[in-house]
Amino acid sequence: MDRRTVWAILLMMVIAIVPAIFIKRPPRPAPGATALDTGLVAAPALD
């Protein structure tokens, strides 16, 4: 195989793999933290 072909294949592999290594997904919130938010609105204060 030609040297340029090997370099092209290697470069394509690097371009495909490197972003997955450096771009991390944000961490998920803890399961207990979502259970605390019920979505209920507090009752209005009475005068």
Brief account:
The chain is mainly alpha-helical and 47 residues long.
Protein model, in words:
The chain has two helices and no strands. The chain is rod-shaped, with a radius of gyration of 26 Å. The chain has helices at residues 3-22, 31-36. By secondary structure, the protein is mostly helical.
Estimated structural class: mainly alpha
Instruction: Let me know the number of strands.
Output: 0
Subunit organisation of the chains: single chain
Helical content stands at 55-70%
Radius of gyration: 26 Å
Strand content: under 5%
Number of H/I helices: 2
Name the average pLDDT. 79
Largest sheet: none
Order of helices and strands: HH
| Shape estimate | rod-shaped
Distance between termini?
86 Å
Low-pLDDT ranges = none
Observed structural traits:
47 residues, mainly alpha, 2 helices
Detail the topology: elements first, then pairings.
Blueprint: H1 3-22, H2 31-36
